[in-house]
């Protein structure tokens, strides 16, 4: 087993020293604010990336989006869905990541601020992501469309890909899923090995799933658990990123393996020395491994 990256190890030590409470112990509002404080990068910008905030039509009202437009943008547009257990996160928590990805990929990135659980349970967040993707495809994506999401956002990206295949559009050229949630289950080795101590915990995931689903039956639906789809060949070419010290590691690997076995062009990138959520760690700490992974994702976007 790989050793934990020294920068990550120092970050976890700092979190412990600061007495940051586990997210699963906090109320919804307090958990959101705590996650925001951990993720938002004050004053960090990428030179040459302009942003525009607007709203686009959604199934239950306008959906906020933020467009990142590098001065040298070419190629496909990225529709980005943020992580946070369907309950936390938003445009600001993933702003630095989207800026860095747009600059590295030289692509327009459109981040989607979907409705969150528990106020809006499955399938509401997915419905927003699909509607926003339809708008992005029609209005922005003249040279192709790539879906990118981290954690719960990776789950939503996979759900949008499946909906697009079943509904005949929009055409998704590739999906890039970073440490995605792919299955409503807690029986993998990685859930045992990484149950606690590495930022995201098993109890966090249990809380997130409970907030997201209306019932256990929802958890068996492939739009919530894409690993369970009966038609894995419906997914577009796919990149899956997994982390060694992550409860979700094994379900991400299983999803990549299932798509590969079904004939879907699939790339599995394993970052064995880092933790769940490392892509948003771009300032205090500014993880070298996060910058490396963003460059890898950018290369996949440009394929």
UniProtKB/TrEMBL annotation:
UniProt protein name: Acetyl esterase
The organism's taxonomic lineage, starting at the top: Archaea, Methanobacteriati, Methanobacteriota, Stenosarchaea group, Halobacteria
GO terms, molecular function: hydrolase activity
Organism of this sequence: Haloplanus aerogenes
Domain Alpha/beta hydrolase fold-3 stretches: 79-279
InterPro entries: AB_hydrolase_3, AB_hydrolase_fold, GDXG_lipolytic_enzyme
Keyword annotations: Hydrolase
